[in-house]
Design goal:
Largest sheet: 10 strands, mixed
Number of helices: 14
Number of strands: 14
Distance between the termini: 16 Å
Radius of gyration: 20 Å
Strand order of the largest sheet: 5-4-6-7-1-8-14-13-9-10
Oligomer: single chain
Strand content: 15-25%
Helix content: 25-40%
Length: about 425
């Protein structure tokens, strides 16, 4: 008998707030978390905007000494994970510690620390390098630090697949529960991406919006005047639990994860194929695993980055999978408000799907002003919409052609 996997806890830290309720409230109100970058002087950069975390004090959560030993990407992950675990009421004793694992992904790891310490080495020499540079830098440290803080000893590793990381982490964590290697998994993604090197790198690729004079209007997925995405920082973490385990302890069950698929384009280092075949195949496979038809899907949270290629190609992929239903199913990109959280995007967007199911609200695609003939679906433009959602699908697509699709369903218990 297949073990069913449900979501019993959620935690987030984004530019729209320090937790899931504040994130969801802002999304439903159509608020943007994008503003001028304050973390460094952008006067020599072409891009001056980002979606930064505001008013976050890691010492208040981790203690001052521990906070100093962790790169921001780990701090963000731990803040989100602690929220999610606290919400579940889980206590990792009586053997549960060995049946609980952690998969937290990051696309870049501790580049904030790496950049700072490289500068220290150039200015003062190698003997001045921080002795904890390596453990602060490596991408797997978010998973490791969460496990150490909570005392959980099940499967523990890092997924690293660019912008699909968070979705892959959740999907692979669910597979671990299904094959009976764990009863509980802490899964998601984290990224501290608003920094000099990262902004300069994405800017050099011409991937970022340069609408510096209008930060809140810069991220505009599916709009004809889109000119690139907006980098964001933060983390999203969910608690996945085997259904009977959750029921036995009387847990609140938000939704069931019924479908997951991962595919590769095998096409190009940054661009998807023009027909979106790889992403379409991921949606097909996830639907098949969920034993659902396209007509069963009530809402799609699109990858929707606000780049010219991605938005048009994702639209084609949705049309190829959903056929006539593509014109009826609502599709929105919440990156219009959160910015692009890179490795954390898929995790945060999976939680947004869960909230849409629980609250019956479709978050909008804001800044949708000028229709693009190549993007002609119902993108829930500018204003949230009341609607019953029983099944929600979330797309993720990463550089290098790494695709992921998650399908969440109202839990039938």
């Amino acid at each position: 008998m297949t073990r069913r996997v449900v979501i019993t806890g959620m935690g987030a830290l984004t530019s729209l707030g320090p937790d899931v309720p504040s994130l969801w409230s802002a999304l439903c109100a159509g608020q943007s978390g994008v503003g001028l970058i304050t973390k460094f002087d952008t006067s020599e950069w072409d891009v001056h905007i980002g979606a930064e975390i505001k008013d976050f004090d890691p010492a208040s959560i981790l203690g001052a000494k521990q906070a100093r030993r962790l790169d921001p990407f780990v701090q963000y992950a731990m803040a989100a994970a602690f929220q999610a675990v606290q919400e579940t009421g889980l206590c990792f004793d009586n053997g549960l510690a060995e049946r609980t694992g952690v998969i937290i992904g990051s696309g870049k790891g501790g580049t904030t620390t790496l950049f700072e310490q490289f500068r220290v080495m150039l200015e003062h020499g190698p003997k001045r390098i921080h002795p904890l540079l390596v453990p602060m830098w490596i991408s797997s440290m978010a998973s490791s630090q969460i496990a150490m803080a909570l005392g959980v000893k099940g499967p523990n590793f890092c997924v690293m697949s660019a912008c699909s990381t968070g979705a892959h982490a959740i999907g692979e964590a669910a597979e671990i529960i299904r094959r009976d290697d764990a009863d509980v998994m802490i899964a998601g993604g984290t990224e501290a991406s608003v920094g000099p090197l990262t902004v300069a790198g994405f800017s050099a690729m011409r991937a970022l919006s340069r609408r510096n004079a209008e930060p809140t209007r810069a991220s505009r997925p599916f709009d004809a005047w889109r000119d690139g995405f907006v980098l964001a920082e933060g983390a999203g973490v969910v608690i996945l639990e085997e259904l009977e385990h959750a029921q036995a302890r009387g847990a609140r069950i938000y939704a069931e994860l019924v479908g997951y698929a991962a595919t590769a384009d095998a096409y190009h280092i940054t661009a998807p194929p023009e027909d979106g075949e790889g992403l379409a195949r991921a949606m097909h496979l996830a639907l098949r695993k969920a034993r659902l038809s396209p007509q069963d899907v009530d809402y799609i949270n699109a990858h929707g980055t606000s780049t010219s290629l991605n938005d048009a190609i994702e639209t084609r992929a949705i049309k190829s999978v959903f056929g006539e239903h593509a014109q009826r199913v609502p599709v929105s990109s919440t990156k219009s408000m959160t910015g692009h959280l890179i490795a954390a995007a898929g995790a945060v967007e999976a939680m947004i799907c869960v909230k849409a199911i629980c609250d019956g609200v479709l978050p909008p695609t804001i800044n949708y002003e000028y229709p693009d003939p190549e993007c002609d679906l119902d993108y829930v433009p500018n204003t949230a919409r009341q609607a019953r959602v029983d099944v929600a699908l979330s797309n993720s697509a990463g550089f290098g052609g790494q695709n992921a699709c998650l399908i969440l369903q109202r839990a039938a218990i």
